[in-house]
Batch of 2 targets.
Target 1
Amino acid sequence: MNIRILLLLACAAPSVLTVAAQERKEENKTPILSTPIMEERVTELMADRVPTTTSAAIEKLMEVNENAALMNKENMMFPADELYGSSWDNRWVNPFQTKSITFPDSFAIDCSTFTIPIDGNLKVTSPYGMRRRRMHRGIDLKVQIGDTIRASFDGKIRMRSFERYGYGYYLVVRHPNGLETIYGHLSKFLVNENDIVRAGEPIALGGNTGRSTGSHLHFETRFLGVDINPANIIDFKEGVPHQDMYVFRSVKSKGRNTNVYTASGSGQMVYYRVKSGDTLEKIARANGTTIDELCRLNGIRRTTILRIGQAIRCSSGGEVEIKNTHPAPVKETTVKASVAAVSSMPETTKTTAAATKTSTRKTATVTTVDNDGQPIYHRIQQGDTLGALAKKYGTSIEKLCQLNGISRTTILKLGRSIRCS
């Protein structure tokens, strides 16, 4: 019986193997069906290759941001190059004394980002003006030896030098807004020539070097080498600018340049100087505004760390009268400036919505309004073109290029003043 079973199994084995081989062969011929997961992956890969409207908008935004960052970097590397004509002299505080330089008829200097150059209380120990038959071309601020000295605006270090019978150890910083600031009688430098610094950044330590009878900081503000009384630009009692814009006008009086001072008016902007323990919420509540509005006016975020002594702008201001208050015997010229900033503050409450409605589209423009042939200037805003400016002021692109020494292809930098007549 066992022998018979073994013989049957032996005969059946080849048949079983043949059937199995045929089944495997048929399976190999069966097409592979795609699964939902594979289809989804293929769709994603295809979508990556097909540009969409959203991706194009994002790419355009990235390009705009890159261009803005590049322009900002260029402004810091070559501050106010359009004014100074690439003149970068590391030997003289005023390199234009022996050079022929063309002053603009007027120039609007943005002082809104001013930062107090010293820590602690502001005390002016000697003002600008004649002193013991010598011209004192700046103001003296009380500091102790070793106190931190800070940059007043963003800028680039033009000079780091020593003058035994004058400034002592001193720095000269050129700023993109057109000003140069000088810091004298220092005890130690914290920066080198050609370094780029930001407003509020430490640049030196206070001292008593050079022609000095006690520790203090000698602080000057200059425009194309011409000294300007710092107190005309800055309120040293509060440590903030009198106004966002200081207008320099090239008016000759007895062979010397005089300046137009941005006087306080009914629409004066309100600033607050940060003290220990202050927060954005506390400042907003004290000045009857919102945190969002403070962030918009100062270009900061809710998470920005406030530095003691920092000037915080608390209102956008309005129309401001600019008059010549420099004590020179020249005809007083009145200029009206509309001052503000572009905003897109989100609507949160009815109050903030109403405030936003009145300040959604604000710009900083300086334009003369007198009728005695004074030139008209326009401060470049987002979206401005030579064609748009020519149409607005009733002139031609060629005339604009001629008045400003530019070409049709010149890139208009935000904040730059363009002469339109």
Note: The first helix runs from residue 2 to 29.
Target 2
Amino acid sequence: MGRLAIFIEKYTINRSSEFEALMRYRAAAEELGHHADYLFRRELRKIPNYDAVLIRALTDPLNSSFVAARMAELHGKPVIDDSRSILVCCDKVHMYRRLMAANVAIPRTVFCGADEIYPWRGEELLAELGPRLVVKAPNSSFSQHVEKVTTPEDFEKVGDRFLHRADRIVVQEFVESEFDWRVGVLGGEPVFSCRYVIPEETFKIMAIVNGQMRACRVEPVPVAEAPAHVVATAVAAAKAIGGGLYGVDLKDVDGRAVVIEVNDNPTINADEEDRFAPDVYSKIVRHLLGPRS
């Protein structure tokens, strides 16, 4: 029997679907003959007592989740997410460069430093990439620090603000769609898929509109029914990052899939992402521990 540590933070359990998903991880482990415990930040010291670690908290190089990943690795324990994946996915410049090197399709993308955040450069990029640009801070998450600009002046304003968080920003062509595909990939294999339907009031899957949080609607889709080219592109994108668990966001434009982002620690909520993939929990446990230790 193996022992699995599921590392969580209190904010991990804001919704009933999040709580139920955490329960399903433990049930899957027990069905496979393993034991699973939930660990909080104050219990990080216990990680060496376990055979594997599953992180279900916000991942960032400055968060306790990164400490959990590094501690697991230093003690030779399999971990999702591994520290390398966290570092890559939390730096969009690094992430997009890895996708480019692997010839994975992404929106037309330019990286800009402080010496380029001027209206003249914004005018050049609007002419080169289209009348609407998406500007991103490299270390953004949950659609924060991602904005759409349409004028050289807005490019300078947003760019200056984002440069307070990094020494480079990401500038991309705006790719319009009613929804994003999200494909979950584990060890190079697709394990779930769904559509994230974008709220009408925004272009992002999550945004504050008039002081209220607006989040996308999740429409689960069996992997076998998702467009084959979307799934194939998602798998290629995940492999360009590593061999762990990733959520790949894509847009399907005229039969061509482009990767918007690769997320480590992807959201898997009960009766949403897992609706047509109830075995996703056991697959993750097997990836970490095998059927029985």
Note: The two ends are 5 Å apart (CA to CA).
